[in-house]
Structures
1.
Amino acid sequence: MRAALFVTCVNDAVYPSTGIATVRLLERLGVEVDFPEAQSCCGQPQFNTGYRRETEPLVRRTARAFAGYDYVVTPSGSCAAMVRQHYPAFGDAAATAVAARTYELTEFLVDVVGVTDVGAYFPHTVTYHPSCHGLRMLGLGERPRRLLEAVRGLELRELPGADECCGFGGTFAVKNSDVSAAMGQDKVRNAVSTGAGVLCGADNSCLMHLGGIVSREDAPLRPVHLAEILASTEEEPWS
Amino acid sequence: MSGTYLGMPAFPAAAKEAVGNETLRANLRHATHTIRDKRAKAVAELDDWMLLREAGKRIKDHTLRHLDRYLVQLEESVTAAGGVVHWAADAAEANRIVAELVKATGESEVVKVKSMATQEIGLNEALEAEGISAYETDLAELIVQLGDDRPSHILVPAIHKNRGEIRDIFRDRMGAWGRAAPEGLSDTPGELAEAARLHLREKFLRAKVGVSGANFMVAETGTLVVFESEGNGRMCLTLPETLISVVGIEKVVPSWRDLEVFLQTLPRSSTAERMNPYTTMWTGTHDTDGPSTFHLVLLDNGRTATLADEVGRQALRCIRCSACLNVCPVYERAGGHAYGSVYPGPIGAILSPQLRGTGSEIDASLPYASSLCGACYEVCPVAIDIPEVLVHLRERVADQGGKGHRLEKAAMKAAGWVFDHPRVLAAGEKAASRTRRLHPSRLPGAGAWTNTRDLPKLPPEPFRDWWKKNRAQDRGKGARPAGSGTQGRDAHGPGVGGPNSDDRKDSGT
Ligand code: SF4
């Protein structure tokens, strides 16, 4: 099985470890991974801020970059949601075609590869924040949890108010920074209350926002992308 | 009630105040979470909830598509049943019509059923200017009115007040409006309700004119419907000689049968009840029962303009249940007043800028008062895709330029250009990575982010460089690697948990 990795602009520039983990995880499961280098940003920041026209070239670029692949996999629920939910409305045949073949990582693992036990080892206590776009737009449901529950050594702690937004929301984080920060602080407080050492998410934008608060408040938590947990093995553990 | 919203500051500034008010946040958190959980339970009881939701959406969409026809039919039915129909293009016209109707009765007082439409047009203030006193009779509206306050929630307008504050308002202000609060009034719910009951009873028995809105109007029969919990509505709708109802034109439904859907979805969504305690339905006038004169003022006030917008028009499906407010994380922290409108929360953020236009600072800021988390859409009993409308309205605001948006547009264009030119992007990423040790975690000028959050530290190299070094050479034409056995063969770059992870650790991200 061959799949194109849509790493996303945030992961490319700021969180390459998530991209690397995704590559290793998929390869370990027998998936042949390609990284079409023409890819860049899906256009979500522009689109969600009301700049539809400025989004169009990015939609076309993304569509061209991933044309011809049966599967496009991305370790980001919100970018997957952008492509899947909004690309068809741009009236570009290639964009519509890519939309139908784009999968968020946990969807791809569970629905396409057909695994929940990916052979990972991660001896830490973890609490999981399901980001809104994955939860509500993609309907990821129990997939991330099932994947995490199958990880050896991992102890999953229930996050209170898990389905509440962390407050990132793209440009919302700066346009309404007070409300955004208040939401993030509440989320971090809830995560700390679980006693888990790792705050896991499937969207690094949310983790960037939460991590910024964790760092500022010196909270005893390490935000880690789900892909990095799933990529971790006994032989090559994540530290 | 000081009901004016003119000159409201933009949402972020108004919200900042609320966020800093710990008591308010605790009140709102407690109240919204309680009702949110109850709603979830009430809705979960119905196996066919999603079908009811879809049916409600379709009934409303169908009606809106043929609104002209159904409104004319409604006028005919109401007239045939003995009512008089008036058409008001805007708030001023509606207020003038109501004031004239009240004056024609020779009365100078009216009792009111809680109604969003009359708040939207500022009817109480308009009547006051004409020497007519309008008394709110819903408990929470009474609290707001006596406290010279503004409502902050559609269903529980005094959600921002706690019991102690309510006791003080009753004790200090009731006397000036009618029967004073009993001596030694405590803040127990029972005593507060009794004080309100005694105060209001006097008004019900004296009033000759009642003013209401309506939840639904049935075109086929000319029937108006009010859902309520306290019974004050029943009093106002049946005791006075004259009843004047001010209703938005989008409240019409074609037939009696359509109510079946909303009788189920509205109470469960709003008060989390299987059925609301009082449902009052009236059709015109009757010789022996209820008001002998009935006027219906049909209100446009921006609705036909909203209807003209293909994406935005879905906001007119709203049945004002307020479920979206109760699940909204932004509403929970910013409170209702920050929305600068009688319609707060997610529905307010899409309705106010459409009804009033995006000309004012507050209205132009409302479409951004959301993280687009989608919780509102999920609970909405008529499936209004609020995030979709928010993004659509952001486009409108961005297009009109205005404060900050020209600069933002330029930045978005520039970013778009960079992202559309991966070579430039790659060079930028490289440069950023190379200078990463110099990047501070707090940036002057980036206060909106760094006042509360550290910036992430940049990695030693972007992902695409790692790929080039570790995988790209294997991807020569026709030389695709076998799927497995690639673990641990990376020539360079961080392993999982390598330097990148350490960077994360330092920066906490
Ligand atoms: S938008 Fe939907 S959820 Fe919000 S008040 Fe209206 S009907 Fe209720």
2.
Amino acid sequence: MDVGRGSGRDDVVEYEPVIGLEIHVQLSTRTKMFCGCELSFGEPPNTRTCPVCLGLPGALPVANAKAIHFGLMIGMALESELAPRSIFHRKNYFYPDLPKGYQISQYDEPLCRGGRLADVRVHRVHLEEDAAKLVHVGESGRIHASDASIVDFNRGGTPLAEIVTEPDVRSAEQAGEWLRLLRVTLGRLGVSDVNMEEGSLRCDANISVRPAGSDEMGTKTELKNMNSFRFIERGIKAEVIRQEKLLARGEKVVQETLHFDPSSGRITTLRSKEEAHDYRYFPEPDLVPIAVSEEMLDTARASMPELPLARAERFEHDPSYMLDTEVAKTLAFRTDLGDFLELRRPESPDEARVRANLIINELAPRVGTDVPLADSMVTPDAVVTISGALMRKEISIGGARQAFDILVEEGGDADAIIEREGLMSAEGGDELAAVVEAAIAANEDAAQKIKAGNPKAIGPIVGYVMRETQGRADGGEVTRLVHEQLGV
Amino acid sequence: MVDATGPYELIALSAAAAARAIAAGEIDPTELIGAYRARAMADELNCFTWVAPERGPGSGGDIAAGSSPAPGESPLPGTPLGGVPLAVKDLFCTAGVPSQSGSRILEGYEPPYTATAVARLQGAGATLLGKTNQDEFAMGSSNENSAFGPVLNPWDRARVPGGSSGGSAAAVAAGLAPWAVGTDTGGSIRQPAAMCGIVGLKPTYGAVSRYGMIAFASSLDQAGPLTRNVTDAALMLRHMIGRDERDATSLRFPEQIELPRADRLDGVRLGVPAELSSEGIETGVLERFHSALALAQELGATINTDVMLPHAPHGLAAYYVIAPAEASSNLARFDGVRYGLRAGDGQDLVGMYTRTRHDGFGPEVKRRIMLGTYALSAGYYDAYYGRAQRVRTKIVEDFRAAFEEVDFIVSPTTPGVAFELGEKTTDPWSMYLNDALTVPMSLAGIPAISIPCGLSGSSEGKGPVGRGLPVGLQIAGPAFSENRLLDAAYALEQAIGFDSTAAHV
Ligand SMILES: [Zn+2]
């Protein structure tokens, strides 16, 4: 123990991070934001391009109505105020991934203002176009010191919604958790693939720290383009620590744009405030204002699904479900699981709980995440059948597992499979009790230990029962019977 | 009317007359195209930056059904324009044909697609004769800012043809083309039309698609006809207008464009605002303007000199903020990365950008990029761009109020007749003043036509042959009033009786 370190504890200032997030969401429209090119999913470079998204002379943008529709849905999901009239601006700067020399974005008249998702307020949501992809040839992989740069315009012009939060986030963990909630919400809306590795969801963080309890805002830095939840949390953590150390040493935080390298954990400067661009925003004269009609609002409203947060609430409090908070959340945040549960109305909260657990613990892991549950071989009725059989103790959980193994592979009628494979707990009730009795008789030592107060000694007895029943006995039921017969 | 029995000069036919003669089987479009091609090839005025090559007979066979004909090829028979050749300003994209916007930075650039306005004319049967010279990126009022050299005025080769559609105007005036497409941002159709003694029409903003026009100032650019007479202007406009899904600012024109027939102006109220007809205008121009007004009255029009456009005098200042601001952004794409000139290879990115744009742009383009960049800069935006937009709104309101009182606003098109080459190149502001009378209509987005109203007899306008230089009369109407505007212009044109073929070379 280093006693010296603790001695000055009283003088140490506690710092509080103040974090705002900027999230770029690639919208899963069929075509790009301002031209008719279809969105690209790994096609050969520069095959999804046209005069508009290549910025050829004379080409003009036309706003994608579907992207505006998706923007309105995002605004509704985030409880934003939807602007009846908003306009596009040009954001001017030179870079090879920006073929026109400007990005068409929204500036002071965005599509959505304000809003909230859970514990974080939303500042605004606006629409813009994505830049092209620069591939730097050479060792560093960065534009500086690369031998050459190749531009792939397939991504250029992909519709983006940019979501900007208020600086309400207070920790890296909170940032990660909130982003996960945002991700499932956007995924539920069906407006984006929300795949961070593929860049359809990208996050920047504005970070500052201040003495805990203070209302003042410290100098903020911007941490750019982190492409996984893990990197975001690590990056924010590293930056908060860096700023805290600076302030603790009496130094100042410099306003700058930073890059977090997840492999080294190091933070490097991308550009300083002095190098910041003057984007010379002005209204895009090639486009007309977005006038949001009642009809557009009606269409967007009609497209709104039940959002994950609301669904979790319902699973938790609806009298026909009454699920545990975590179970409710799991089902609500993985839409296909919740959907699968809801395909058949539960007979009782107990039935709902049994079926929810089967879906989460048995079915989902077997099907995997590549296909939604509804597209698997297993029908909702099969799960209803199995949960019913379980509740009536006609099969054991082991039997249920065997049935799922088969159903996931072959599909079919659950009753028929239970019948065919002999999964019925023929040993149920009195018959199982008889097997347990035999097991206790065959394992006297173990029975004595249990009686003496060592519940872990039950292993050999359960093992005996399982061998005798070919694993079809319900472990919980076996334990209950053992305890019953031993009188403990 | 064409005399089908006797020999007649193909070149003397107006575009509409030629189209009628082709439809009637009186002339062979191939001969007509050949005659113009020969004249365009022999161009001594530097009107053309590219002339369509001759095509052998039958070479039209590879034209896919429904597509527009390739350059120089005869169109499918039965089209409304029947193959009448068309000169097209360089800044229109034409597939596989140099489209350079008068700039070094686009030298040799051949776009993969054709501008909607040109494609529509080709679809109606026009044959692409050639691309015409212009001020670089349409920035100029004299055609002296072209990377491909100045265009000479056919009325007096020591003088400019006006700009920026100078090549188009001079080609039509000199009989090197029956008609031409130009673009007008602050007067670039009307001003050269006036200086070359032909008709030029800037339509309502949005009437003609801008798709494929290499942009100068997006909120002002508008394509339109440069023709020998008002009827040709109506005919060309008919085949250019219409909503284009590729141009979000294009509009559905509420009616078909009719060929004008009016011979009287009974009941037509003409407004002559003092702001556009007094200060800084040459006496020779004013003389012709007032004779035209007298003729209009004889045709039954009333003249209202009380009508006012109080903010019009600020139009030029607002225009020279808004247009360069938009241009500074529109021209950012010329960066040497994807097409056009690239200089400074081997330098770093900024070095390549800098060298390319240094070598590629001419001085006037650089001046406007700098003006526009400054006007949009943080801290200056409100003082310049924001304020200019407020002036623009005031001018729109001025015209709206004026059109409550009168049907049309009339003025001289330009303050002076064609000036001498080099006369104003060292003084940008005196050059900019050429646009003073045309810019307000551009800012308001309303249609305006310039028709020749005689030759200036004043000393500063006297040509070397002593015949004087053309003066333009500008008539402007409310948005989408093109049919009425063309009718009024036609009636005046008949009464004035100007010979637009007088400068044919
Ligand atoms: Zn495209």
